[in-house]
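Much of our argument rests on the idea that a fold can be written as discrete symbols. In the encoding step, the backbone of a single protein was reduced to a row of integers, each denoting a local shape. We regard such an encoding as a compact summary of how the chain folds. The record that follows shows the chain in one-letter code together with its fold in token form:
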Amino acid sequence: MLALKSKYFFSVFLLIQIAALQLLSYYPKFVEQYYSIGIYPHVALFLRKCYGLLGFSVGDCLYIGLFCFVLYWFWTQRKQWHTRWQENGLKILGFWSVGYFWFHALWALNYYREPLFEKMNINKEYTPTELLVFTNKIILKTNNLHKLLNSNPNLKVVYPYSEEQTFAKALNGYQKAAVVYTGFEFLTLSTKKSLVSLPLSYMGFSGYLNPFTNEAQLNYLIPKYGLPATVTHEMAHQIGYASESECNFIGFMAAIQNEDLYFKYSGYTLALKYCLSQIRAQDPVAHSALLKTITPGILKNFEENQQFQKQYQSYIQTAFEVFYDQYLKANQQKEGIDSYSKFVGLLVNYYKTKPLS
């Protein structure tokens, strides 16, 4: 009887949590002050210190073990499900309630923090002309970087560093970015090659943050030139930014301010890809004209990425895109998957009066 009551308790606790989060969504400054820059940095640093020195992904092992346990539990309950459906249903709700609590306590309350564009006083809106002007600046910088990294304009840039070297080098860019904005300070690496990189490829993810261990997980199968920008994006999640557009913006800034030219190239190609995508949707003629001004080797890198995506394109990726889109919308990102591209507005407006690195 006591066990049954406890299951009811956790189910009710889940409803209380959902209601509390709805209330918190109206108080982003409160979340910002007391969680995002109050409690969270200490929790995140503690977790990174605990798991950062380990040479394997603890978070991936946690998820793999959880997946196996869930399969085992459903298998053992299959014959008596119809007679114990209420008790089993309460067990599932109770398990979900506990996980939901720790998910938010350890990281996800950052979804409810004050938006970065408000704190940095950046306008998100831009005109087609402003986007075109900015994209031309990005093309010029990317063309120059390609020239420095590969003397043959017709060949793609080949990334020379290992994943471990990339992780270590990423700190340099964050040290520079923290000078621009103190909220970008990063301490203690905990970045790992994901043990589930193949499934991540089929799901369409280049990396993810494990909120329970604060490990940044990298899909090491992605085209190598994109590694730096992916790593700096996931590191932005680690320091408490949940919005995908904000993490793209922070990751871009940390990449282009890095002293290493390959990091700069990765950051600029990321921004260029998103800018071109926005222009193609608005003005296909202008998009075609811009492509002619881009060094062919850069387009080869883009083609490399497209081939990678085609290789793993399947109904699994489509299903996860739908799921992840709904997940983002449920967590304060109304645009869903499209929120990734919203960082273009941050870039265009932030760099109106500031030089690109």
Summary: The chain has a mean pLDDT of 91. The radius of gyration is 22 Å.
